[in-house]
Amino acid sequence: MDADSDVALDILITNVVCVFRTRCHLNLRKIALEGANVIYKRDVGKVLMKLRKPRITATIWSSGKIICTGATSEEEAKFGARRLARSLQKLGFQVIFTDFKVVNVLAVCNMPFEIRLPEFTKNNRPHASYEPELHPAVCYRIKSLRATLQIFSTGSITVTGILLYRYQTCQLWIE
Amino acid sequence: MESTYVKIQLFSFSLDALPRVTCPNHPDAILVEDYRAGDMICPECGLVVGDRVIDVGSEWRTFSNDKATKDPSRVGDSQNPLLSDGDLSTMIGKGTGAASFDEFGNSKYQNRRTMSSSDRAMMNAFKEITTMADRINLPRNIVDRTNNLFKQVYEQKSLKGRANDAIASACLYIACRQEGVPRTFKEICAVSRISKKEIGRCFKLILKALETSVDLITTGDFMSRFCSNLCLPKQVQMAATHIARKAVELDLVPGRSPISVAAAAIYMASQASAEKRTQKEIGDIAGVADVTIRQSYRLIYPRAPDLFPTDFKFDTPVDKLPQL
């Protein structure tokens, strides 16, 4: 058992998903015609706007709800969201920046060793679920932190969740 | 084995003032009943007192070697009410003679009245399950288990929005797993109209709903089925089982699905013996892609001499095995 709690595992946040509301109805057609870097998906009813500075893709609905993905950190997500609201304001909508909420954070982490999935699943029965035919990773759900970890046999782990204090990862590994 | 059946005989009654018959000569004597003749006989003098009493013996006798379908002592259908509750209704069957059809060719007295309308969907699902299981020749115990699982899921109603067929397919998959004879998702897919993705989703949901878990699949579970489908002799099958088990033990194939490993092992074993099979054939049977077998084979090829069982007779020696 590698008691590697001293070794700092670099855990990188790769994606932050957030939502916010502009308290006004948005005219998607106008945004599609006048906005820069937009894609109008008429069949679904939304506009995709991509920003370059914080690399963000935002899905804008006509009701005023906006989902913002692709940011690398929470502050960046907030910057990007504000910048987006500013650009919508410039287009002429009375935008009020409300209800900003981080919905999902995705991070990856790499273990220096490989992991034997069948044994791991047997030892962590209720939390881990492994279905080799469906997905090559073990899906480990931690209820207390409301996080889901996908553990691959190469040692790389994908962590999804809202709170991201996952540094006690080391203690779980049985190899 | 005889079953009881009450036979009511017609007999004329002379209403006695006394509720019980007694022998006129011996009023205290307890009458003996002779059920064969239907008599009540006084043991003291042998007078036949009561006549034509009800015979509670069975009318027909059924023996255990008789056809189970035709049991003249039973009334009603032999469905088990454990699964579909409340089975005591009468249905109008299809007509047999010519008189049962009216002028257009439709049958008179049509529509068998809907019985158990509350569980109509469940009955449909059971029928679907039986059809699916029949296609892959699953034994009755798996079908029963599937029916039970479906009933539990259906009563829970947590998966109510999902298509019944999808839940039925997933229940079938779980039942096969639980009985120790797992079928791959692709095999279940082949007999069902539901996509593998949907079956997989329902599978996870059902496990959560019923709060059960299933054992992991191993390579050995599929060996006998795949090998017999490929008409491979017993030695090749045993060799393939050995190879696959060894490969997993030595962790030569991390992260590969056990089906792919099994397919690669069968390929290696068959190539080493007289009965060679191509990757395409094995891929067809196992539901694994050609390239996947190739990938897994490349992983186990370096250790090939260690993986074979010690008493294996090589038709093609180990160093001559094809290298892909």
Structure description:
The complex is a heterodimer of chains A (175) and B (324). Chain A has 175 residues and is α+β, with helices and mostly antiparallel strands. Chain A has helices at residues 28-34, 74-90, 117-123, and strands spanning 11-22, 38-41, 46-51, 56-61, 65-71, 97-110, 128-130, 138-142, 147-151, 156-161. Chain A contains 3 helices and 10 strands. Chain A has a 10-stranded antiparallel beta sheet with strand order 2-3-4-5-1-6-10-9-8-7, covered by helices on one side. Chain A is elongated, with a radius of gyration of 20 Å. In chain A, 21% of the residues are buried. The model of chain A is unreliable at 1-6 (pLDDT under 50). Helices cover 41% and strands 3% of the residues of chain B. Chain B is built from 11 helices and 3 strands. In chain B, strand 1 (32-34) and strand 2 (39-41) form a beta hairpin. At the A-B interface, helix 3 of A face helix 5 of B.
